[in-house]
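Sample A.
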Amino acid sequence: MLIPVIMSGGVGARLWPVSREAYPKPFIRLADGQSLIQKSMLRAAAVAPAGPVLTVTNREYVYATRDEYRSVGADERNVFLLEPSARNTAPAIALAALYVQAHYGADAVMLILPADHVVEPPAAFKAAVSAACALAESGRIVVFGVQPDRAETGYGYIECGGAIGDDVYDVARFVEKPPLAQAEQYIAQGNYLWNSGMFCFTARTILENLARHAPQLQTPADRCWAATPPRSGDAVHLDAATFAGLPEISIDYAVMEKAAGIAVVRAAFAWNDIGSWNAVSDLVTPDADGNRTVGESVMVDSSDCYVQSADRMVAGVGIHGLLVIDTPDALLIADRNDAQKVRTVVDRLKQTGSTVHKIHRTVVRPWGSYTTLEQGPGFKIKRIVVNPGAALSLQLHRHRSEHWVVVGGTAQVVNGEKEFVVRTNESTFIPAGHRHRLSNRDSEPLVIIEVQTGAYVEEDDIVRLEDVYGRS
């Protein structure tokens, strides 16, 4: 049995300002309108139509991920393994393997798929997976290697050893991201492949290798699994106390660089690890001057630029080799040769205490979303959208009052000890300290304008008393 495992945990700091901690890289929409997580699900489901897909992600991302999956018709049998915090790929794979072993048997084959890849065409990917599964069933760890088309310093490399079959080799060694001169040497030698970060093995094989090569990880992972409660609906909530004791380590360091008998399938598919804005731009067809644009733009006497804007016109005059990424609350302008340095911007923002690295102006919540329209000393104005059948938590605020005006739909409101309906063009006032809840019991979205006033209007001034999403 083949169980695809989608690893969806990376923040994607090099894709700021679109990717942020609260809404990271897997949710980025590409030029074709699909997000990376949607592409991953469709790819996984195509190679394993008989079985479920297991997604390992953070608890905060599960609601948005469910929405993404539903919109592409994903199978309701799919399962989420929810991490309370980030611990890199090895702990995620160890716990996924323990889940697969418990539910499908130790000989079930796992296909590890990062959620930030673009792979084409599907037929070539399916053929590579078929070859990998045959090797995995014999007890091998299998990696997918991609034929390099340039000396890339942002990827790891695999040195191929002896041939096992058509486009299948023993792995001689793994090499971390090399400097340019070394990458050029690998290209010239011809026996090096890019390490795609996709793997295939049985649950038994990877657990045995983790126990042999990384017991400092596997032992606490076993404890975490033993302490984790049974699946609830489509989700397994990993035990937070024991999960916190897991070391933060990648599967490459924990196993791949130490294990023997690893095989590599040289893939015939085109692969793009969406790790920088240059990688995103490669997916867009250039114009005659090499400019690639998403959204409305006008380019005059400009060349080799990537411009992306969702909400407004961007005009470029006399610019060359630039990245221009425009969002409602942040603008990135960078030399294309420095695309990898965008991560440094995020580090600087963290140091200043800014929240622009973490949240967008529009923030997705389990019940819908809110957009901050304006904020100043002592006030904040939001547009809140509540999905049909959804409800915010029963909550109160210590430092602020709120005025709700319904501009679309009908609101079911708890305000203090009273519960009542507020319709379009009507409003209600919630004093500081009052318990309150906003619900939408209709079949259409509920839209309200919320005006907050008080000495402190930040998001952490929330005391949740009850919550259907388990956040109280």
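Sample B.
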Amino acid sequence: MTQAFGIKGSGVSVSINKTPILNDLSFGVRSGSITGLIGPSGSGKTTLMRSIVGVQKISDGMLTVLDLPAGDKRLSYKIGYVTQNAVVYDDLTVVQNLRYFAVLAQSSREQVDEIITKVQLQKQRDQIVSSLSGGQRARVSLAVALLGYPELLVLDEPTVGLDPVLRQELWQLFSTLASQGKTLLISSHVMDEADRCDELLLLRDGKILWNHSRERLLQTTKTDSVGDAFIRIISMKGKA
């Protein structure tokens, strides 16, 4: 059976102000999977995500998203994007924010209510966003990204700074979304987050170290955790 990819890159390079950020990346993100984009700060994760959603122009190579060129206008309703900083209106309530963005996403009020329940913000639906905790604000951003039933979710450090219970709840939601056929690309610099992913895209200094399943990574490196495997793979690449 042919492998279906929600995202596919071939020779993707990005330079910003003549400084190379991504160097000749070739990779695939399997449809209907949770793929962890894992790497230390400064490795190029956010630049790659911005390229995938079409807000960063690539310098070279080919990047396709849902079988269309990255940045194609037809992708605007097919991708949900959550940045590191919540992009919502502080002076509006949760439900007002979602109803506003629902118009842009051509979504319905019924879906707004459905998503508020899905991200567990029922008690905060009429609360001003500026009064919410960091974790609650993160869930508002995720709720906005879910509007319009996107096929692909690109989430940049969605669980950073959250308490363990909320992190667990969000990962359960991510697993549910993947089981419904959505493709999720989730970035993190925290290695234990990678242990929750089906597939891994390990990035360091703008280059890919690994693009395959977590299970195969542990088998290949003969390690028990992605953190240890990351160190081992760096060593193996250095000797290659």
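B remarks: Residues 14 and 136 are 34 Å apart (CA to CA). The helical segments are 45-53, 94-104, 109-118, 134-146, 164-179, 191-194, 214-221, 226-239.
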